[in-house]
Amino acid sequence: MKLQSLITKATQFPEATVAVAAAEDEEVLKAVAQALQAGFGRFILYGDESVLSNLVAEYVQEASDDVIRIVHVATNEEAAHMAVKAVHEKEASVLMKGNVPTATILKAVLNKEYGLRTGRVLSHVAVFDVPHYERPILVTDAAMNIAPDLQQKTEIIMNAVQVAKAIGIEKPKVAPLAAVEVVNPAMPATIDAAALSLMNQRGQLKDCIVDGPLALDNAISVESAEHKGIQSSVAGHADILVVPNIETGNVLYKSLVYFARAQVGAIIAGARAPIVLTSRADSAESKLYSLALAICATNK
After folding, report:
1. What pLDDT, in 10s, does the model give residues 99-117?
2. pLDDT tens string 186-239
3. Which residue intervals of the chain are DSSP H helices?
4. Are 186 and 173 in contact (CB under 8 A)?
5. Which residue ranges does the record assign to the Phosphate acetyl/butaryl transferase domain (predicted)?
6. What phi, psi does 172 have (nearest 5°)?
7. Which of 62, 163, 217, 248 shows its CA 20 to 30 Å from the CA of 124?
8. In the chain, what are the domains?
9. How far apart are CA 87 and CA 121, in angstroms?
């Protein structure tokens, strides 16, 4: 399944509604326009009404009131509050970050009264379509958890498995990454990887196959795994790459985008609803794939 297939799948849910906080952003409106053109999504845009009206008129052709609704708010904080509350009250099924700081929208998401907390760890799940690679690769967590401990890593895996299943990978193969493929007491990532593998074998991590530690080459290359004599159903066939910390995830994510020219869609999982939390520097195409991924994850 390639990312373009996500858009096709998202069209099966034309009624899915997205609440966009601080939607006054050209790339966001381009993504909204592309989603509507593809045939999926309804949108509630929170922000400055005059600015939004002009942007909608420029980028969205013949948008009817039943697919786009503008709600005027005066500040980013109010936009985040209103958008999160719309999802909390099931007026919308997906939350999307517009031209607003991540900290502002996450503060609203974590609000005890109207937020989207579930008690689970929130984690970033990215789906990559890498040129010349035969299948999609999921990477987690490149943006939320700085240095996750073993318990947090179990929840990060559970979130990623749910996303993988939503896009059609029924029993994803999970590789907890490290610098080496053997347990080394001096390298905590290898110890966590071994523990996660054992937890999976004992049924504590379900609906997936976990094996590690694995270095990146061994996780994604059959030839590399065979060369090193690694016997594993995950080695060379990983669907989900679990990074040991946010620095590793950030570098891997941006390397795939900027060096490999990979296409990517990403969401925050673990909340009551998927959250599209793309960077303001991300392209409209990336935001479109992220929207499609979120809608597919909502309807898993």
Report:
1. 999 999 999 999 989 999 8
2. 999 999 999 999 999 999 999 999 999 999 999 999 999 999 999 899 999 999
3. 3-10, 26-38, 49-59, 76-88, 102-109, 150-166, 188-201, 216-220, 222-227, 246-258, 284-298
4. no
5. 54-294
6. -65, 150
7. 217
8. 3-117+271-297 (3.40.718.10), 123-259 (3.40.718.10)
9. 18
